[in-house]
Amino acid sequence: MGRVLSVASECVPFIKTGGLADVVGALPAALAGQGWEMRVLLPAYRRLRPLLDEMVEVLHEPGLFGGVGRVFSGRQAGVDLLLLDAPHLFDRDGGPYNGPGGDWWDNPQRFAALSWVAARIAREGLADWQPDVLHAHDWQAGLAPAYLRYQGAGGVGSVLTIHNIAFQGWAPASLLAELRLPAAEFHPGALEYYGGLSSLKAGLVTADRITTVSPTYAEELLRPAFGMGLEGVIAARGGDVTGILNGVDTQAWNPEAETHRYSARDRSGKAAARGALCAEFGVDVPGPLAIVVSRLTDQKGIDLLPSVIPDFVAGGGGLCILGSGDPALEAAMRDLAKAHPGRVALRLGYDEGLSHRMFAGADAVLVPSRFEPCGLTQMYGLRYGTLPVVAATGGLADTVIGASPATLAAGVATGVVFHPTDSIALGQALRKLLALYAEPEVWARMMANAMAHPVGWEASAAAYAKLYAEVAK
Ligand code: ADP
């Protein structure tokens, strides 16, 4: 059995601000089934420090960027957890990355400390545990492969996964020595990034292999529009870069476990779920009932909805929106709902329970993103037979088979895919959705296809296991 040290700034159920936490939290159980034992190293943020009482100290680092660091080990919530306790860096009120006044001023040092300790554990091992592979996630762990590389990897392989390339861990060049990085590596081919430092770039140039969260996004990252300044760095790694799709938690997202149960074999409960959803939102929709469950941001293409939904409503469709975000988009959604009472309805806020009822009750889920590294809601849609209408980008393109004469004839379509992300293409996609809904047999076949599409972690875990085996030396 191989061993992996996974290092990240977030992990469900301990600390979460985004999808990174879901992936880091899901991997240990998924990898165990593939013969890989994974331990997860996180900072002991203030709210995690009570856990230390039930864990044992396994490593002491006296000079850790201005104070003492101690690593504690123990099994917590089903995860083999390692917590880095460094009160001078992590014992604070506020979020993992920012306090009341914005980003923590010492974020470069805080996450350098996490990465430093990760590299030390990888290289030296703990008393009872020596990893074969270091798996670093996003910029917060980007320096871990760099430290490992520059200090001698001792036979341990490294993988860096990009979940969100928009955050690159920038720091001024003046911190080079303080961050314990070699001056000789401060050049464009290695650590230098637009005159400063980027811990994500450092990881990208030093990790043995790089992954991102879908195959299409791995290709898109080579283009300036998606690579956000790092496209050249990624291109230079050539075949070392691969895309591995995220999975979803198929126990948590299970139509057989919802209030109005249904399954792929017996979908009769979905009609009851639809009725309940319409009642909850106060809508009455003769045609397809679509949902949006999303951050309301430009990335998600929410700004396109006001120009296409009036036609969709005129064609018999309806829309229930759950989300929060950009105030201008919240206002636009409010106006949209007001203009179409009984057909379009809005709930502002974050509500996991409601999102379950929406996936269970709706006919379709709209995901018109401009970019989407992986995306989860289209996969919930597949699982619930709630047909995804998605832009052909990133993980959306990799998970949904768009309806076309060929895919319908072959009986494999699972949704509607459109390109590019603009109101013309989205409008056409919604007209296609109306037409498909008008043919109950076609629609039923697509629902069955969608629900049969595997969205769990099995395939992804096998891909990570294969990658680990390749980099373990
Ligand atoms: P991103 O991480 O870019 O926001 P993803 O599709 O990868 O997009 O993940 C978003 C997750 O957050 C999904 O699980 C989605 O259901 C959930 N979500 C987004 N907005 C809301 C909301 N307002 N209420 C409940 N869940 C939400």
Short description:
By secondary structure, this protein is α/β, with parallel strands linked by helices. It has 18 helices and 20 strands. The strands form four sheets. A nine-stranded mixed β-sheet has the order 3-4-5-2-1-8-9-13-14, with helices on both faces. It has a six-stranded parallel β-sheet with strand order 17-16-15-18-19-20, with helices on both faces. Strands 10-12-11 form a three-stranded antiparallel β-sheet.
First CA to last CA: what distance?
14 Å
Mean pLDDT, all residues: 97
Structure class: alpha/beta
Unreliably modeled segments:
none
Largest pleated sheet: 9 strands, mixed
The CATH architecture of the largest domain: 3-Layer(aba) Sandwich
- Radius of gyration over C-alpha positions, nearest whole angstrom: 23 Å
Helicity level, as a percent range? 25-40%
Bound molecules: adenosine-5'-diphosphate
DSSP E strands, number: 20
CATH class category label of the largest domain: Alpha Beta
**What amount of the residues lies in strands?**
15-25%
Discrete helix count: 18
Named CATH topology of the largest domain? Rossmann fold
Number of domains: 2
- Overall shape: elongated
CATH superfamily of the largest domain: Glycogen Phosphorylase B
